[in-house]
Amino acid sequence: MKKNILIFAAVFCFSGCASIVSQSSWPVKIASNPNQAKFIIINDKGEAIHNGITPATVTLNSGSGYFDGATYHIKFSREGSKDAYSIIDSTINGWYWVNILFGGIIGLLIIDPVTGAMWKLPEYISAPQ
CA separation (Å) from 66 to 45, 49, 62, 69, 129? Predict the structure, then answer.
């Protein structure tokens, strides 16, 4: 019993809430109207990290560094149409704030910001009309 309490205490003190109940990479559905548009995803370092044809689902990291959420630019192209552009931008994950309630200062200031679990990405993005 004492061993279980120590394990629970260690997990509680040395982990971030968002890291435990959430994730640091998210599936994002990429769509266009009409379908079959080519797309390319570029990260905030200017690197092309994924390309495909709509509709598709890609898994993207929500963090880009310590206390830095990821931002992705998407270029949509379709023969006979002008190129269209969208942005996927991370937002604060609601689970991150639970660290304050449970005293997880290590999770609040270190674990969740480093792992990217303090951020989330939208579930869906579509080419602008």
Answer: 15, 20, 12, 8, 35
Into which CATH architecture does domain 2-126 fall? Sandwich (2.60)
- The DSSP line for the chain is -HHHHHHHHHHHHTS-HHHHHS-SEEEEEEE-SSS--EEEEE-TTS-EEEEEESSEEEEEESEEETTEE-EEEEEEE-TTS--EEEEEE-EE-GGGGHHHHTT-HHIIIIIHHHHTTTEE--SEEE---
For 83-115, how does the pLDDT look when each residue is reduced to its tens digit (9 = 90+)?
999 999 999 887 777 776 765 777 777 777 788
Domain boundaries, the chain: 2-126
Structure tokens at 27: 């599936």
Amino acid letter at 129? Answer: Q
Question: What phi and psi values does residue 92 have, to the nearest 5 degrees?
Answer: -65, 130
pTM of this prediction exceeds 0.90: no
Show the tokens assigned to 119.
């951020």
